[in-house]
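User: Teach me something about this protein's shape.
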Amino acid sequence: MATDLNTIKQTQQQVWPTGDYQLVINHMNLASMSERLCDAIPVLPTHRVLDIATGTGNTALSAKRRGFPHVTGIDYAPGLLEIAKARAQAEQLDVTLEEADAEDLPYPADSFDVVLSTCGVIFAPDQKKAAEEMVRVCRPGGRIGFTAWTPDGDIGTFNKTIASYVPPPPEAPSPMKWGTVEGVEELLGDRVALEITERELAFPVRSAEYYIDLMLDNFGLAMAAYNRLDETSRQQLRRDLIAIFESRGRSNNGALVVPGKHLEVIGTVR
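Assistant: First, the predicted structure itself:
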């Protein structure tokens, strides 16, 4: 029986909050990706900003720090939003954080000056609808900015390797489409004037083994796949993932620095 996109989304909602996603984010230095994206837009104090798939709030909080614009962050995983709310309160940042679906945003057209997402909206099962919603809620002349892992980068290869052991449903679109120039142009190019730049995040880790064990113990999507395997397959997958990062990372004073190859996409709504 075929799995529809809504079933895929429901599974994602259950899986994302498992483990400790904030721990993963901290180790990957993803906050620096949010900071750079907000600078590239740039976010200004007068802006109305929406962060789609905010997760634990990295980009929403980064945007708020830039002169205190009006910032809203949405996500479909309540557990992640609770962490985002606690972080905002700890930093005394007044950010609106709401449960909502990237494919069906609860805001009128032209509600925002800036629409952002860091490696978040790319996981929406219905990519066409998610792209349409980004454009719909951003005013003409407003700015859209997002980041996406490239298929040939280390994180893209990490995801593809896991999928080779636990294939996703055939109906599930690959989030890596957002990490290709062709995919971005197909999704947004007719409505947004695009500036696409390939970048490296460069996140340092203690070792490839340390990083892979961290991901398999704390990153919900990886955990769900890993736990479906028998012990022999688990150990083989672990070895394969360690080999990826050992081959792609560079040694620096006993640590490993992983490139974190991704696209940074900045666009102006026509």
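Now, about its shape. The mean pLDDT is 95. Residues 158 and 241 are 6 Å apart (CA to CA). If you'd like, I can walk through any region in more detail.
User: That's plenty for now, thanks!
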